[in-house]
Amino acid sequence: MNRKEDLGFMEQRRFREILEKLHRELHDTTSVDEKTKQLLQEVESDIQYILHESEGGETRAHHTLNDRLKQAVGSLETTNPDLTETMRRVMNTLSNMGI
User: Fold this and answer.
1) How many Cβ atoms sit within 10 Å of the Cβ of residue 25?
2) Assign residue 56 a region: left if phi > 0, alpha if psi is -120 to 50, beta otherwise?
3) pLDDT band at 91; cut points 50, 70, 90
4) Nearest to residue 95, comparing CAs of 53, 50, 54, 65?
């Protein structure tokens, strides 16, 4: 493996770790309105697809996840700061991946 492949592998591994953290935090989130709850369920669905169905490459789910996270951050930023910080980390990682 060359240096570029090593960096790509490390970035993918870090991305998966952040997604898994977000997955855990979503399960702990309880006090949200119905609209936000639906949005978080969609985010969870995107995460599950990327973690279990995606083969490590960029998919439409990556783009959809990024869009939904932007919406969710706006809805949750004052009530769930820890969750929104993790969402921002995922969005930054997606941005660094060119998504």
Assistant:
1) 17
2) left
3) very high
4) 65
pLDDT band at 4 (very low <50, low <70, confident <90, very high): very low
Q: What total number of domains does the chain contain? A: 1
Instruction: Provide the percentage of residues in the chain whose pLDDT is more than 70.
Output: 87
What is the residue range of 42's domain? Answer: 3-96
Q: Is 49 exposed, middle or buried (0-12, 13-18, 19+ CB in 10 A)?
A: middle
- For residue 18, the Cα-to-chain-centroid distance in whole angstroms is 7
| Location of structure tokens 């980390």 | 89
Chain centre to alpha carbon of residue 25: 11
**Rounded to two decimals, what is the model's pTM?**
0.79
